[in-house]
TrEMBL record:
SUPFAM superfamilies cross-referenced by the UniProt entry: Acyl-CoA N-acyltransferases (Nat) (SSF55729)
Signal peptide as annotated in the record: none
Coiled coil: none
Domain N-acetyltransferase: 1-102, 14-100
Taxonomic superkingdom: Bacteria
Name of the molecule in the record: GNAT family N-acetyltransferase
Annotated organism of origin: Agromyces allii
Pfam families linked to this entry: Acetyltransf_CG
Gene3D superfamilies: 3.40.630.30
Length: 102
């Protein structure tokens, strides 16, 4: 895939409360999910996966950023039990005041 093709991709991310996950799609195809458990005060991220066909394109990072920003915007704490989310938090400052490390 060329850079021009990547620029033309339509990437959408949404929170599916009933399924307890954030879903990222690329051009209408599900590319990955971030699974969570919600409580009245926190969102515990338990598992994140991106289909290998979409690997190396920053899709996982976009999914993590969206999910974490949404959690903070909702006034909830972030509990990173998922290794991918935990690594993202360590590499991207700015969330420290909202994280409860397990």
């Amino acid at each position: 895939m060329s850079d021009a093709e990547a620029v033309d991709e339509v990437v959408e991310i949404e929170r599916e409360d009933a399924a307890r996950r954030y879903v990222v799609t690329v051009d209408g195809v599900q590319a990955g999910v971030a699974v969570f458990v919600a409580s009245p005060s926190a969102v515990t991220f338990t598992h994140t996966v991106v289909d290998p066909a979409f690997g190396g394109r920053g899709i996982g990072s976009r999914l993590a950023k969206f999910a974490l920003d949404d959690t903070v915007a909702r006034g909830l704490r972030i509990v990173p039990r998922c290794p991918f989310i935990a690594a993202y938090l360590r590499e991207h400052p700015g969330y420290e005041a909202s994280v409860d490390w397990p």
